[in-house]
TrEMBL record:
Molecular function GO labels: catalytic activity
Full protein name: Pimeloyl-ACP methyl ester carboxylesterase
InterPro entries (UniProt xref): AB_hydrolase_1, AB_hydrolase_fold, Sec-Metab_Biosynth_Hydrolase
Signal peptide (UniProt feature, chain positions): none
């Protein structure tokens, strides 16, 4: 996907999302956005949608948002509340907690369940590596409510709906996309890792958002 975007002349920067809390993560991404010269299209996958919705608020150089099987919150919504708004998510039963010194928890998807849960349409040899190299999110981040103005209320947004997502049900994705007034592209049978299984379609939507 990155190669396709670069081939079309798009400068790509993969922000290192800390996955610690919505407010903290958004501040880190916003710092990166502020350091970029020129227009920015922010792309968020999964929990990353929570982050870009906050990070882009009031950022003068962000021209569009792209949500890839992602959360699009209103103030008061959390990732956990949105994923449970419609039936179908089986993520919770696959998560394995690791206690942290501050009393919190890091959450990992059990490696033996990762492929089926997260990336059922991605080759097994790839999902084994994805499972082994996954980065954990804190439990607190999943339950942290969005606060303040969300950027999608002010910016054009685009949403890639993964039709067979087992983390964020497709009905929840369509609900959030409609609420945000997003331009929607749906891919039937696509897993939560739609960016990996359908990189061309993902890149095409980002290019459309960028006007390329």
């Amino acid at each position: 996907m990155v190669e396709r975007l670069q081939a079309r002349g798009v400068q790509v920067v993969a922000a290192a999302n800390p996955l610690r809390s919505v407010a903290y993560d958004a501040a880190q991404v916003r710092a990166l956005v502020d350091a970029v010269e020129g227009d920015v299209v922010l792309v968020g996958h999964s929990y990353g949608g929570m982050v870009i919705s906050k990070a882009a608020a009031g950022a003068g150089n962000v021209v569009a948002l792209v949500y890839v099987a992602a959360f699009v919150p209103e103030a008061g919504d959390s990732a956990a509340s949105l994923s449970g708004k419609f039936p179908g998510s089986t993520l919770a039963e696959t998560l394995r907690p690791v206690p942290l010194g501050d009393g919190g928890q890091d959450l990992y998807v059990a490696q033996e369940l990762y492929g089926e849960q997260f990336a059922a349409d991605v080759p097994e040899e790839v999902t084994r590596v994805m499972a082994a190299t996954q980065r954990p999110i804190t439990g607190a981040a999943l339950y942290e409510a969005a606060e303040g103005t969300q950027a999608w209320a002010e910016l054009p947004s685009f949403f890639l709906v993964a039709g067979a997502d087992r983390n964020i049900p497709a009905d929840a994705q369509r609900f959030m996309a409609e609420r945000a007034g997003s331009e929607v592209v749906g891919i039937e049978g696509a897993s939560h890792a739609v960016f990996a299984s359908r990189p061309d379609e993902t890149a095409d939507l980002i290019l459309r958002a960028a006007g390329v």
